[in-house]
């Protein structure tokens, strides 16, 4: 065992990379659930985003176009879910599970010709001045642009949800859709927009795995990241900054346990492998012990206008 | 006042409004007019079309035919925002509030162009002071009492400076004191020229508040009147179109003690609940005991301790002399103690389940609807059918979801379900809450009939008129304590007030 070979600066830097896919998917799902819809299809939208982003990225040799295509693909798939759930009033849980299975199958089909190809590399940003700060520079300011995009999305989500009228309407629709309807808000339209946003974010998260993190296409490569994102949303009490905390905590311990495995720590591999899940759950449960952390009042209920 | 005169000065006129839904005409050629500064009552039984009519005025429903004018101009609101912009505001029957949001956020959602949060908070404080409705804009709505929640709705409307305020059953969840405050606010508003369209089942309130009434029956305007010149009974008969049956009872002597509570105390399982403190009561066979009191003084807790949902921490509950405090609900049902809680949807009935299933839920034990773990569907259905027939529950069939019934019909069903199980002791909480006059009368009559057959009945209610009408003895809950019950005959308003306010808790029996 040689713990000396673990470089804490590299570890913290790779934490942000490891956490970004889950962070993107989770912040999108948090918005969807805040509007009162439970979309269990995150995994399916992520993997679809992963394959579409990879395919477009490879064909154009431009990762940025790959991310745009992934967001569009995730949103398109989520619209299928939105149509079924909002307008055809199908059961949200069953439809979401179906979406995951559909996404997994669809991505395997699209991805067949792309197996074994390497993704075009995405240039890292060396943010001038900031990246020269000792310790903090390499940890925070030497990443690819998507890491910063994901942080901007979290900040923007927090701002819109808590400070703007659009966010208030979205929360109102999720809290009590009958009341929102009685006040004249278009419940299904608000929810459809939220679902599209969630789908786009999940698509981005998936593409980050196939274009940056791995970076190649492997069937089923999201490997449950979508389900982790769903769990983080709940344990984070539907709050954007806690979603960030949960995702980074999970990403951090994932990277740490891999390093520990490589360093040959005398712990069973199984214990190390499960540690990210256990620690994330424990910490977020600890946080949510205090204060008001109820689920949105209309979460998972389908909305029937009475006329 | 002639129709022409009303038309000429009218703030709003409705002409020939018609709205049909598949299988039912909710409104048929409805016409009337509203004057500025008038409180106009809209009367009718459950299902007479009142809600559809006000939804058309508020832009939630589009009429099939007919027209409206507001201040002489054609008024066709395409959505509630358009109605609000034109000066029409509405306070809903089931509050349209968002529990997890703050008062200020709730109010902002009901406005079309809310000011900044800081200005809005200041304006909420200002308006709530001006109308005597104190309210803290920062509080979370879920923590407020029913009266405070309604204030949120009213202030939301007042901030829009409405010309017409529509109120759908505003007092059904309010305490008498809160009703008094509400009426003062409404009078202030009418003095400023606002017209109020007022829907309520409480006819005494309408007589004291409204100057004009339009009566709907099966979607048609059948009559108009000045409610101040009519008695509550005449108003009820105009609504029903028939003579109203007033619950009546002959005098009979109650029998032996059926249920008694001796020094019962209980810590409320609900964070915002009230603890029961040293409650002693007894009720005899053939007797109706009325328990009054302002909501939130331990009514729910008292029902829970009697039904077996909660255990008393001290004291004894005896059914025909046997201690039953440790028995769960079904064991109590077996022994003849049945209860019907206040909340229709979610507590006394499961909204998503059919009437048959709901009949099974409390009737399983006494009606033998379960045999060796298997449900006897046929028997359950015939039990549900018996309830529907005996209590005139209006529903297409036993397979309909409980939640699809109107409030009054579901209430008849949940009371009927317990009454038909032939209880020795029946405890009901708010048996006629939000129920129209005819249905309320039939529910009260059924409780009296049950007592006449020898059952002991405890009626917990905030409706004092109801308790005076059917109870033999009266007491009140105040902060979890009960006063000594006294006979209702010759009971004066002062005595009742003293008991409800806690007084010394010792009114001469």
Can you characterise this structure?
The complex is a heterodimer of chains A (307) and B (509). Chain A has helices at residues 8-34, 42-60, 63-87, 92-111, 136-140, 145-163, 165-175, 177-182, 187-213, 225-235, 240-263, 269-288. The radius of gyration of chain A is 20 Å and the shape is globular. The longest helix of chain A has 27 residues, at 8-34. Chain A has a single domain, classed as ABC transporter involved in vitamin B12 uptake, BtuC (Orthogonal Bundle). With 307 residues, chain A is an all-alpha fold. Chain B is an alpha/beta fold. In chain B, strands 13, 16, 19, 20, 21, 22 and 23 form a seven-stranded mixed sheet that branches. Chain B has a six-stranded mixed sheet with strand order 6-7-8-3-9-10, with helices on both faces. In chain B, strands 2-1-4-5 form a four-stranded antiparallel sheet, covered by helices on one side. Mean pLDDT of chain B is 86; it is low at 504-509. Chain A binds chain B through residues 165, 168-169, 171-172, 175-176, 178-180, 182-185, 292, 294, 296-297, 307, and chain B through 21, 55, 59-61, 79-81, 84, 92, 94-101, 105, 108-110, 114, 140.
């Amino acid at each position: 065992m040689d713990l000396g070979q673990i470089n804490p600066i590299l570890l913290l830097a790779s934490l942000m990379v490891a956490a970004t896919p889950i962070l993107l998917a989770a912040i999108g799902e948090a918005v969807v659930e805040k509007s009162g819809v439970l979309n269990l299809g995150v995994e399916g939208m992520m993997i679809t985003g992963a394959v579409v982003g990879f395919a477009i990225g490879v064909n154009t040799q431009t990762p940025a176009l790959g991310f745009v295509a992934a967001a569009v693909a995730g949103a398109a798939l989520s619209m299928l879910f939105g149509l079924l759930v909002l307008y055809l009033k199908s059961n949200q849980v069953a439809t979401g599970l179906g979406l995951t299975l559909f996404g997994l199958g669809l991505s395997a089909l699209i991805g067949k010709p792309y197996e074994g190809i390497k993704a075009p590399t995405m240039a890292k940003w060396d943010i001038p001045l900031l990246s020269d700060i000792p310790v903090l520079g390499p940890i925070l300011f030497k990443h690819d642009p998507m890491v910063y995009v994901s942080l901007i999305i979290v900040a923007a989500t927090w701002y819109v949800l808590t400070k703007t009228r659009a966010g208030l309407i979205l929360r109102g629709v999720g809290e009590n859709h009958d009341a929102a309807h009685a006040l004249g808000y278009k419940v299904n339209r608000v929810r459809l927009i939220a679902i599209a946003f969630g789908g786009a974010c999940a698509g981005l998260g998936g593409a980050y795995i196939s274009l940056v993190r791995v970076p190649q296409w492997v069937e089923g490569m999201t490997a449950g990241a979508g389900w982790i994102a769903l769990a983080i949303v709940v344990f984070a009490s539907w709050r954007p900054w806690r979603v960030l905390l949960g995702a980074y905590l999970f990403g951090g311990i994932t990277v740490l346990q891999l390093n520990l495995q490589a360093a040959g720590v005398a712990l069973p591999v199984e214990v190390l492998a499960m540690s990210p899940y256990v620690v994330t759950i424990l910490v977020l449960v600890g946080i949510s012990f205090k204060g008001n952390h109820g689920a949105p009042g209309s979460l998972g209920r389908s909305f029937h206008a009475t006329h | 006042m002639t129709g022409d005169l009303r038309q000429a000065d009218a703030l709003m006129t409705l002409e020939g409004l018609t709205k049909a839904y598949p299988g039912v005409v909710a409104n048929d050629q409805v016409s009337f007019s509203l004057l500025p500064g008038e409180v106009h009552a809209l009367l009718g039984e459950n299902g007479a079309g009142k809600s559809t009519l006000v939804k058309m005025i508020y832009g939630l429903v589009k009429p099939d035919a007919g027209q409206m004018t507001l201040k002489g101009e054609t008024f066709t609101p395409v959505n509630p925002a358009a109605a609000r912009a034109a000066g029409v505001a509405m306070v809903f029957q089931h509050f349209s509030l968002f529990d997890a949001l703050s008062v200020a956020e709730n109010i902002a959602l009901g406005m079309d162009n809310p000011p900044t949060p800081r200005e809005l908070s200041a304006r909420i404080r200002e308006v709530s002071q001006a109308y005597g409705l104190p309210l803290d804009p920062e509080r979370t709505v879920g923590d407020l009492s029913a009266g405070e929640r309604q204030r949120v709705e009213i202030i939301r409307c007042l901030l829009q400076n409405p010309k017409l305020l529509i109120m759908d059953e505003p007092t059904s969840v309010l305490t008498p004191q809160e009703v008094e405050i509400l009426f003062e606010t409404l009078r202030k508003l009418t003095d400023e020229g606002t017209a109020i369209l007022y829907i309520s089942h409480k006819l005494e309130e309408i007589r004291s508040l409204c100057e004009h009434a339009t009566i709907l029956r099966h979607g048609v305007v059948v009559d108009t009147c000045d409610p101040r010149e009519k008695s509550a009974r005449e108003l009820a008969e105009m609504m029903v179109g028939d003579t109203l049956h007033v619950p009546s009872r002959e005098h009979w002597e109650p029998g032996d003690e059926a249920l008694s509570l001796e020094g019962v105390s209980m810590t409320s399982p609900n964070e915002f609940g009230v603890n029961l403190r040293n409650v002693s009561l007894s009720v005899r066979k053939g007797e109706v005991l009325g328990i009054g009191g302002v909501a939130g003084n331990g009514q729910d807790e008292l029902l829970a301790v009697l039904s077996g949902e909660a255990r008393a921490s001290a004291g004894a509950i005896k059914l025909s002399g046997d201690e039953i405090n440790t028995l769960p609900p079904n064991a109590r049902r077996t022994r003849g103690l049945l209860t019907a809680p206040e909340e229709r949807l979610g507590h006394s009935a499961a909204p998503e389940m059919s009437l048959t299933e709901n009949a099974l839920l409390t009737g399983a034990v006494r009606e033998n609807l379960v045999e060796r773990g298997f449900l006897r569907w046929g028997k359950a259905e015939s039990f549900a059918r018996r309830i529907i027939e005996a209590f005139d529950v209006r529903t297409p069939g036993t397979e309909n979801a409980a939640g699809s019934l109107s409030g009054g019909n579901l209430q008849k069903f949940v009371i009927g379900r317990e009454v038909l199980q032939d209880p020795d002791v029946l405890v009901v909480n708010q048996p006629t809450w939000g129920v129209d006059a005819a249905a309320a009368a039939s529910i009260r009559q059924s409780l009296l009939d049950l007592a006449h057959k020898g059952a002991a009945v405890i009626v917990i209610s905030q409706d004092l008129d109801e308790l005076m009408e059917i109870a033999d003895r009266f007491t009140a809950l105040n902060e979890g304590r009960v006063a000594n019950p006294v006979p209702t005959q010759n009971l004066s308003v002062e005595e009742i007030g003293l008991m409800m306010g806690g007084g010394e808790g010792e009114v001469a029996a």
